[in-house]
Write a structure and sequence with these properties.
single chain, 214 residues, alpha/beta, Helicase, Ruva Protein, domain 3, Dna Topoisomerase Vi A Subunit, Chain: A, domain 2, 2 domains, five-stranded mixed sheet, 8 helices, 37% helix
Length: 214
């Protein structure tokens, strides 16, 4: 169990002042722990909520029921209210093409581009031993099961062009080479070290059209 120690100045081990914190301070601290939100942005959000009681109540209601309403799709692993998700249960989609992504938000980004007609598979991360992410933490076994039980013609590896993304793509290529499936990866327009979540729709569209077989 992690023990938070306080010094004589009323700070914890992270240098945060915990003596005399009120509800406002605690909420700002919580918001600042979210990705992409610093202390100043967190403060603006909290003060905006204080001036908008209806929004605060609606937000609190949605957050309180978030984990009860949203679950992982048992097929692709994305977040959904219905299982299977709308993409996996859509007969109009091309179920012979699977786009493999790192996280569920990457799937949403690709869907917004309206470029991909197939279905998805969320790995839940990338191989990164230094960060404690191993093969056991990823859904590669479930991907193999899908390849065995379905008539899959192509896998598109929509992984970020980083060291971890390249390592994961290479592992998948070697592991899945025994399957009669074409494996490709997004090509032009994807900058080295970039992140799919922040790529514009036009660049992402060109990446899909320019994907290369690996």
């Amino acid at each position: 169990m992690n023990v938070i120690r306080h010094d004589v100045r009323g700070q914890n081990a992270n240098g945060q002042n915990v003596r005399g914190q009120n509800a406002l301070d605690r909420l700002i601290t919580l918001f600042s722990r979210l990705p992409g939100i610093g202390k100043k942005s967190a403060g603006r959000i909290v003060y905006h909520l204080l001036d908008n009681h209806a929004l605060t109540q609606a937000l609190a209601k949605e957050l309180s029921g978030l984990h009860q309403a949203i679950r992982r799709c048992s097929i692709c692993g994305c977040f959904t209210e219905a299982d299977p998700c709308l993409v996996c249960s859509d007969p109009a989609r091309d179920h012979s093409i699977i786009c493999v992504v790192e996280q569920a938000q990457d799937m949403r980004t690709i869907e917004d581009s309206r470029e991909f007609p197939g279905v998805y598979h969320v790995l839940g991360g990338l191989i990164a031993p230094l960060e404690g992410v191993s093969l056991a933490n990823l859904t590669i076994d479930k991907l193999i099961e899908r390849l065995r039980s379905n008539n899959i013609k192509e896998l598109i590896l929509a992984l970020n062009p980083t060291v971890e993304g390249d390592t994961t793509a290479l592992y998948l290529q070697k592991t899945l080479k025994s399957f009669n499936v074409e494996i490709s990866r997004l090509a032009s327009g994807m900058p080295v070290g970039g992140n799919i979540e922040y790529i514009d729709k036009l660049t992402l569209s060109r990446s899909f059209r320019g994907r290369v077989k690996i």
